[in-house]
Amino acid sequence: MSWPAGSACGEPDERVQALLKASGGLNLGMEFLSGALGFDPLAHRVDPAEAGRVVWFDALINNVDRSWRNPNLLVWHGDLWLIDHGASMIWHHNWRTAQTAAAKPYDASDHVLAPFGPDVTAAAAALAPLVTEELLTEVVAEVPAEWLADEPGFDGVADVRRAYVTALLPRAKTIHERITLRGTGAKGATK
Ligand SMILES: Nc1ncnc2c1ncn2[C@@H]1O[C@H](COP(=O)(O)OP(=O)(O)O)[C@@H](O)[C@H]1O
Ligand SMILES: [Mg+2]
To answer: Which of 29, 106, 136, 151 has its CA 20 to 30 A from that of 188?
Structure first.
């Protein structure tokens, strides 16, 4: 969706108003989960299989913003929804470091789902084969070209799209071997 710079579209919430005013132009609109609750690790239970899939996904995209302090998870009609992936793939702010950064381990000791015994091994077995070159290529093809234009060090938008695939494809295959879940007793840090 696209809206004019500076417009708050009659939004009553001041915080949302400020965000809208700063977000003129093309925006990505996701589903609004009306009545969703913020995830509370003391009030909600997550089984090890689901916790493993979330931790594995966060490891893939190197999301550092899913801690118990700031879960960025909503509960809606009994299901867990992942939101706010703004602190992921930090390397796409400095592409020269992307290959080295994408090869790094993922420390999940602070992850909000670490105490639920995430079964990262099972998650990797189920999810890693789905993250194919074809899938990644298809997904990055959906990113509007204007968001990828003028990236320093690249020969055009197609090159930037390829860089995401090159960084994420090998990470999907092996990241489960490099996830740390210290002190949680979780079945995570094994092959
Ligand atoms: N898709 C959504 N549906 C309903 N509420 C949402 C949705 N996305 C975010 N929110 C609400 O807005 C809050 C802040 O959203 P978030 O995306 O985490 O932004 P930030 O952390 O950058 O402020 C969430 O905790 C939630 O209460
Ligand atoms: Mg947030």
So the answer is: 136
Rounded Cα distance between 97 and 88, Å, is 15
Q: Say which ligand is closest to the CA of 35.
A: 1
Instruction: Tell me the C-alpha distance between 61 and 88, whole Å.
Output: 6
Rounded to whole angstroms, what are the CA distances from 77 to 52, 99, 113, 152? 21, 39, 19, 44
What is the distance between the alpha carbons of residues 126 and 147, in angstroms, rounded to a whole number? 31
Q: Which two structure tokens, joined as six digits, stand for 83?
A: 């939101």
- Whose CA is closest to 147, among 11, 5, 23, 14? 23
Is residue 166 classed as helix, strand or coil in its secondary structure? Answer: helix
Q: What is the pTM of this model?
A: 0.89
Whole-number Å distance, alpha carbon 168 to ligand 2 midpoint, is: 23
Tell me the pLDDT band of 185, cut-offs 50, 70 and 90: very low
| Element containing residue 102 per DSSP (H, E) | helix 98-102
Q: How far is the CA of 34 from the centre of ligand 1 (A)?
A: 11
pLDDT per position as a tens digit, 138-148: 999 999 999 99
CA 102 to chain centre: 14
**36 C-beta closer than 6 A to ligand 1:** yes
